[in-house]
Specification:
Blueprint lengths: L3 E4 L2 E4 L4 E7 L1 H6 L1 E7 L6 E6 L6 E3 L7 E6 L4 E6 L8 E8 L13 E2 L3 E6 L1
Parallel strand pairs: 2-11
Antiparallel strand pairs: 1-3, 3-8, 4-5, 4-9, 5-6, 7-8, 9-10, 9-11
Length: 124
């Protein structure tokens, strides 16, 4: 089982920025594809972004394209989500997840390990 720990969440005003981090265990931190999902109160979990094992392939949900950037540092076994131009509708618990498959995926079922989540709240 992969261990994932998210950090960096918090309260920010609309238009502001936050950077989330996800620290992974050594083996998976540099060889698995990684993704970020989010879940707002009363809503289903939603795909946010994904990155393949070497960082050369990324994908984003429509609602965050152009505002969020996913990246990774395999030397530190860490994946990042830079969130800019935040909106109140970005308020959610953000989860990091690990995907042992090939390429990247928007599908939750591909992701076999999940972090505990970090709260992001954007005030208007």
């Amino acid at each position: 089982q992969v261990q994932l720990v998210e950090s960096g969440g918090g309260l920010v005003q609309a238009g502001g920025s936050l950077r989330l981090s996800c620290s992974a265990s050594a083996r998976t931190g540099s060889t698995y594809a990684m993704g970020w999902f989010r879940q707002a109160p009363g809503k289903e979990r939603e795909f946010v972004a994904a990155i393949n094992w070497n960082g050369r392939s990324t994908g984003y949900g429509d609602s965050v394209k152009g505002r969020f950037t996913i990246s990774r540092d395999n030397a530190k076994y860490t994946v990042y989500l830079q969130m800019n131009s935040l909106k109140p509708e970005d308020t959610a618990v953000y989860y990091c997840a690990a995907d042992p498959g090939v390429g990247i995926s928007t599908k939750e079922e591909r992701y076999k390990s999940w972090g505990q989540g970090t709260q992001v709240t954007v005030s208007s």
